[in-house]
Specification:
Elements: H1 3-15, H2 26-43, E1 46-50, E2 58-63, E3 86-92, E4 112-114, E5 117-119, H3 123-142, E6 149-155, H4 165-169, E7 180-184, E8 195-200, E9 202-211, E10 217-218, H5 219-222, H6 229-240, H7 262-271, H8 276-279, E11 282-290, E12 300-301, E13 304-313, H9 319-333, E14 339-348, E15 351-352, H10 358-371, E16 376-380, H11 385-394, E17 398-401, E18 416-418, H12 419-433
Parallel strand pairs: 3-6, 3-7, 7-17, 8-16
Antiparallel strand pairs: 1-2, 2-6, 4-5, 5-18, 8-15, 9-13, 9-14, 10-12, 11-13
Bound molecules: zinc ion.
GO molecular function: metal ion binding; peptidase activity
Keywords: Hydrolase, Metal-binding, Protease
Pfam family, one: M20_dimer
Length: 435
């Protein structure tokens, strides 16, 4: 398969507008799934699509080495002296919306190669990685070097918080035979500087509505006499987190936080000095709505206030437990007579894997070989739900890798994948699959 053919496939996938958050484009999601299904079948994979209701399908494609005896049971280990492993590889085929479209210099759904960059929505997040995975498998098959079982796990609702992923992944019991999972949805530290992520923060989103009356009240008549929900919200939030030190004041909040060893801190400092955004939790107000915000003045006491806030969690904190602590804190810190409503929070735990596991160490060697630079080990302040779910459900090492660069504009206009890193990434994945 030459470069032109690979870019042609990549271009076809990018041209499908698989924006998962846009229900009007659900057909495009199905079209992308069908495109990938066909590609996997062409590689000789056994493919299954799993869906709940009408959700974007989870695609599972299993490649079994050609020398393995024919068997209806996939993932049977080849009976060769060099026993093959089963390697799981995750990527997602849904993308973020393209707006604001006027900021794009090239059409978002038309793959455009320019000045060493491959432009288009989803090129870096995450269709480029998905194409790299498919290409690596194909190339290894062509030269008869693929002795391992490869299980592709391609999700279609990563950008809408992977809400069905856990349920769908459990529908295939053979996945428990996988030795290690690679989540290919991350980026490099810089051009030719590879990194492996072994930790991610979890996240919980909260929505709190405080209500003190049925309608807005006249501040001249009712001022000093009634509670003001905007004031209550401000007081509550300032009790919950210290705006200067960022310390979270909820009792018990830090009880389970994983301690970071000296060795790990040294490792992390090599890759980035902003440790604080990776190893500590954070609470942030994301939005506040209350009262009159139009032009001029309206002298009222608002009837309601709405606060949206989120907590980033670190390893060993349990999102369900933290949710309960937050709810208790709100109950104890609002006046008894005040009505409030908590929308069921949506949360995910942090992800953490031992960076010393042999798969991670071997991958670091592969990267050094391909990119000619030391591999950094890193933790991200962000969250990838699938990584935490794969690890919790299957209890195997999960290694987060990727080849996009920090200026790849993911989720933004002019998203791109560096051409050189795209081709080198394919070589790296080949080496991982052939290990
Ligand atoms: Zn992604």
């Amino acid at each position: 398969m030459d470069k032109k053919q690979i870019l042609e496939k990549f271009s076809q996938l990018v041209s499908i507008e698989s924006v998962s958050t846009d229900s009007k484009r659900h057909k495009e999601i199905l079209k992308a799934a069908e495109f990938i299904r066909k590609e996997l079948i062409q590689l000789g994979c056994q493919v299954n699509l799993y869906q709940k209701d009408n959700c974007p399908p989870l695609i599972i494609g299993k490649y079994r080495p050609s020398f393995a005896p024919p068997s209806p049971k996939w993932l049977r280990r080849p009976s060769k002296a060099t026993e093959g492993k089963a390697i799981g590889v995750y990527a997602h085929y849904d993308v973020q919306p393209e707006d604001p479209i006027t900021k794009w210099k090239t059409p978002p759904f038309k793959l455009t190669v320019k000045n060493g960059k491959i432009y288009g929505r989803g090129t870096a997040d995450d269709k480029g990685h998905l194409i790299q995975v498919l290409t690596s498998i194909k190339r290894l098959i062509e030269v008869d070097k693929l002795d391992n079982n490869i299980v592709c796990i391609f999700e279609g609702e990563e950008e809408i918080s992977s809400k069905n992923f856990e349920e769908l992944i459990k529908k295939d019991p053979s996945l428990k035979n996988i030795d290690a999972f690679y989540v290919v949805d991350m980026g490099m530290k810089a051009k030719n500087i590879p990194q492996i992520f072994y930790g991610l923060r979890g996240v919980i989103g909260f929505e709190l509505k405080i209500k003190t009356s049925e309608i807005d009240l006249h501040s001249g008549v009712f001022g000093n006499r009634v509670l003001n929900p905007a004031q209550l919200a401000a007081e509550l939030m300032s009790k919950m987190v210290d705006g200067q030190t960022h310390e979270i004041k909820i009792p018990g909040f830090y009880d389970d936080v994983k301690k970071t060893s000296k060795e790990e801190i040294e490792l992390l400092l090599k890759s980035n000095s902003t440790l604080v955004s990776k190893v500590y939790p954070a609470l942030d107000i994301n939005g506040v709505v209350s009262g009159y915000t139009g032009e001029g003045f309206k002298t009222i006491i608002p009837a309601e206030a709405l606060v949206k806030f989120s907590i980033r969690l670190v390893p060993h904190q349990d999102h369900k437990k933290i949710e309960k602590l937050v709810e208790k804190f709100v109950k104890n810190n609002l006046p008894k007579e005040v009505e409030y409503e908590f929308r069921e929070p949506t949360g995910s735990n942090a992800f953490y894997t031992d960076f010393k596991n042999p798969f991670a160490q071997k991958t670091a060697e592969v990267f050094e070989d391909v990119f000619k630079n030391e591999t950094l080990f890193n933790r991200s302040g962000g969250s990838v739900a699938a990584a935490e779910i794969l690890q919790r459900v299957f209890e195997k090492p999960v290694i987060l890798i990727g080849f996009s660069l920090p200026d790849d504009n993911i989720h933004a206009p002019n998203e791109n994948f560096d051409e050189e890193m795209f081709w080198k990434g394919i070589v790296a994945i080949e080496k991982i699959f052939a290990q």
